[in-house]
């Protein structure tokens, strides 16, 4: 039998980006097997990854462009579909101006697609109205991390550090269901004598693994963190030397925390003072400890302050920027990290540069060959953009997202999408959002195309093409290339992903997320490279290049020893200095040039930068190198329970579905395991309202109603109900959720809204 080679690549789904091999089968189709050489999943795959081959099947795919005709979507040629989009976009721009055109991207798009989409919006369409669904994912952690550390990279250390720390507080993450292979790092932590504290209103499968489970009321994580910090201070557990040497703003943050008495925090959160004290003891006693947050504390209308409070806890105890310690965010979507770095966010340019920074604009404009003044300014955030559809925004191009299911107040968003003059959607399947479109474009996905993603660790990875796409399917890069040409921009939108990546390197050079030292060749040879990774390593012998990837130079007290003059000595972006294009000019045009053998780090010749697995060990990425405390205080959720809506709804995921379910609902095994939504209720609540296990109940909020079977369990608080959000239709959880926005990150309040539950009567 003919031997067909396997291609090593990465999972299409979550931000763990597990390594897998894809092998075409002689009889047709492909096989997915786990890779043991990738240090994150180490040979494990969850059910979603294991069954990922099924979403490649033409049986579940879009394989022809569709255009709306007489109210129905009918097959059309690529030329016809692209012509129609270009014509309608040009007409809309002429009639209403460039900002009447909107672009909505996704955290699953590769870095190349995210980069090209941002450039397309700003250079071809000239619109400021671009954002993406990652705004709904980790934007509060990104905002809080940037405030505190001067830089957001989900995890500033590799997952492999987790088993070697002393304690982890995992806040609002059910990773046993969202990214199961990662649980091994926490199991090993406990085997090594460390402890795991899980903060979650539900006793999830992750919480069952914990040494201590704190179950606060939804929306009170901020008060919980303040209560812990209060106790840290009261018990004399602060690290005063660290605070003095490595931080600013402590007095204000300390005063804010001391105003939150533990007894008051107990009343707000429902977590008893003895449990708060136990958490403080477990967190403070080991030499090293971490706080990791996920969507629980982040998807709140005070998400930035909530994450800030957890960061304050890390800073007051001297954890951040220390070996095996610190704060990190567990990003969710497959390319949630890279997707927010390269320009599809409303306020950002590639390289994680700020759109309103003149130097950043000049740098990127130069790479793009346009005048800086030609680049639009910041646009609306994701929900605000969706809310403006049909009024200020008349035509929308949507790539890699399904907001009909995943956006808050989803019925309203659906109605806004329907009100558009024109909607074009590029997707791999006919999602609920694509069903509303005027033109649908069938595009390639993971194993059918080469591209890069950036995992939750900040590790840039090469996803390789392993199989040919079905006939009729083209890449998103082809779509942007063709639309740009039809709209009068003939150059600058290559269809070859490596060519796009080479431009992305130049655009990111010198920025916070500097990819200029990364090439496809390096990614293939090194199994991924952590950013920042400048084109040339300019560090001295005391920098990480000299001490190796895993070294931690410290003084006898355990404090990092790199001299202050070593700006960015962690390889980090410490102070971002474009050097107005000295960096850009210095970047070799030939990617092969920067992959030569590394020489001594003190050599005059440039050497290859090894990438930066660990950030902040020497200094933070702020102007003065110090982390900033941010004084935060507790406030109520945007919608507290009342007589009419006496309960809190919180939403989340289940192990066998992914995000809006557009792909995983089409996989037989996953669909059988998780065929539909449910409403989790505490037995006392169920008894009070007469709900019966498996029988339908209606959950009602101020925005609508959702119906799903009751699942009665003591694993949830009696004042809280839970629904997974993967399904459309009458059980759509996001019909209920509240779009109240965080003032900084513009994150909607997915994690708590006031509801009531009604039992559905017979007939
Ligand atoms: Fe790994 Fe996430 Fe894919 Fe599961 S879905 S195999 S955890 S990358």
From TrEMBL:
The keyword 4Fe-4S applies. Residues 4-60 form the 4Fe-4S Mo/W bis-MGD-type domain. Gene3D superfamilies: 2.40.40.20, 3.40.50.740, ADC-like domains, Dimethylsulfoxide Reductase, domain 2. One of its GO terms (biological process) is respiratory electron transport chain. One of its GO terms (molecular function) is 4 iron, 4 sulfur cluster binding. Residues 537-606 are annotated as: Disordered. Residues 577-592 have a biased composition (Acidic residues). InterPro entries: Asp_de-COase-like_dom_sf, MoPterin_dinucl-bd_dom, Mopterin_OxRdtase, Mopterin_OxRdtase_4Fe-4S_dom, Prok_molybdopt-oxidoreductase. Signal peptide: none annotated. Pfam families: Molybdop_Fe4S4, Molybdopterin, Molydop_binding. PROSITE patterns: 4FE4S_MOW_BIS_MGD. This is Nitrite reductase. The lineage of its organism: Bacteria, Bacillati, Actinomycetota, Actinomycetes, Kitasatosporales.
């Amino acid at each position: 039998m003919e031997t067909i080679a396997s291609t090593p690549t990465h999972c299409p789904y979550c931000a763990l980006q597990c390594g897998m091999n894809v092998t075409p089968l002689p009889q047709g189709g492909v096989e997915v097997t786990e890779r043991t050489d990738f240090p994150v999943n180490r040979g494990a795959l969850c059910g979603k990854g294991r069954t990922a081959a099924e979403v490649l099947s033409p049986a579940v795919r879009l394989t022809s462009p569709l255009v709306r005709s007489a109210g129905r979507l009918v097959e059309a040629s690529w030329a016809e579909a692209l012509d129609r989009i270009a014509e309608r976009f040009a007409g809309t721009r002429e009639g209403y101006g460039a900002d009447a055109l909107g672009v909505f991207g996704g955290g699953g798009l590769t870095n190349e697609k995210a980069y090209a989409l941002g450039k397309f919006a700003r250079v071809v369409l000239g619109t400021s109205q671009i954002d993406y669904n990652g705004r709904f994912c980790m934007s509060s952690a990104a905002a809080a991390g940037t405030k505190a550390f001067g830089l957001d990279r989900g995890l500033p250390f590799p997952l492999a550090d987790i088993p070697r720390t002393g304690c982890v507080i995992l806040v609002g993450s059910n990773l046993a269901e969202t990214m199961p292979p990662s649980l091994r790092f926490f199991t090993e932590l406990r085997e090594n004598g460390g402890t795991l504290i899980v903060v979650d209103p539900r006793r999830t499968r992750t919480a069952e693994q914990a040494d201590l489970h704190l179950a606060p009321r939804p929306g009170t994580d901020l008060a919980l963190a303040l209560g812990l910090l209060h106790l840290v201070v009261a018990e004399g557990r602060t690290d005063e030397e660290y605070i003095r040497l490595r931080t600013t703003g402590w007095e204000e943050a300390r005063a804010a925390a001391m105003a939150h008495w533990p007894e008051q925090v107990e009343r707000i959160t429902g977590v008893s003072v003895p449990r708060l004290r136990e958490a403080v003891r477990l967190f403070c006693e080991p030499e090293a400890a971490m706080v990791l947050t996920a969507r629980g504390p982040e998807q709140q209308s005070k998400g930035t302050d909530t994450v800030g409070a957890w960061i304050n806890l890390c800073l007051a105890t001297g954890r951040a920027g220390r070996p095996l310690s610190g704060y990190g965010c567990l990003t969710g979507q497959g390319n949630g990290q890279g997707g927010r770095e390269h320009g599809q966010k409303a306020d950002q340019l590639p390289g994680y540069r700020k759109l309103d920074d003149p130097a950043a604009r000049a740098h990127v404009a130069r790479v793009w060959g346009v005048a800086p003044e030609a680049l639009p300014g910041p646009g609306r955030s994701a929900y605000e953009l969706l809310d403006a559809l049909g009024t200020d925004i008349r035509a929308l191009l949507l790539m890699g997202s399904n907001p009909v299911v995943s956006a808050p107040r989803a019925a309203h968003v659906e109605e806004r999408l329907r009100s558009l003059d024109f909607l074009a959607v590029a997707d791999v399947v006919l999602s609920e959002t694509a069903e509303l479109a005027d033109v649908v474009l069938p595009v390639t996905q993971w194993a059918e195309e080469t591209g890069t993603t950036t995992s939750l660790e900040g590790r840039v990875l090469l996803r390789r093409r392993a199989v040919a796409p079905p006939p009729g399917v083209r890449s998103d890069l082809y779509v942007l290339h063709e639309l740009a040409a039809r709209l009068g921009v003939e150059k600058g939108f290559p269809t070859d992903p490596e060519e796009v990546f080479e431009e992305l390197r130049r655009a990111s050079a010198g920025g916070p997320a500097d990819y200029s030292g990364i090439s496809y060749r390096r990614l293939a040879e090194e199994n991924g490279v952590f950013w920042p990774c400048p084109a040339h390593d300019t560090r001295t012998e005391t920098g990480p290049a000299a001490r190796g990837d895993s070294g931690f130079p410290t003084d006898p007290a355990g404090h990092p020893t790199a001299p202050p003059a070593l700006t960015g000595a962690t390889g980090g972006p410490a102070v971002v200095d474009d050097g107005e294009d000295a960096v850009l000019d210095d970047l070799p045009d030939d990617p092969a040039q920067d992959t030569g053998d590394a020489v001594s780090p003190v050599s005059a010749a440039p050497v290859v930068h090894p990438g930066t697995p660990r950030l902040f060990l020497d200094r933070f990425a702020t102007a003065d190198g110090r982390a900033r405390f941010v004084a935060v205080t507790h406030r109520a959720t945007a919608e507290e329970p009342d007589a009419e809506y006496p309960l809190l709804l919180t939403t989340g995921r289940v192990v066998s579905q992914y995000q809006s379910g557009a792909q995983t609902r089409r996989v037989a095994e996953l669909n059988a395991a998780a065929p539909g939504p449910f409403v989790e209720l505490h037995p006392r609540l169920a008894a009070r309202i007469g709900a019966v296990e498996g029988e339908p109940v209606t959950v009602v909020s101020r925005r609508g109603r959702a119906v799903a079977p009751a699942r009665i369990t003591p694993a949830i608080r009696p004042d809280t109900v839970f629904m997974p959000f993967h399904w459309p239709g009458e059980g759509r959880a996001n019909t209920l959720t509240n779009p109240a926005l965080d003032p900084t990150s513009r994150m909607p309040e997915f994690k708590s809204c006031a509801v009531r539950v009604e039992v559905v009567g017979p007939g």
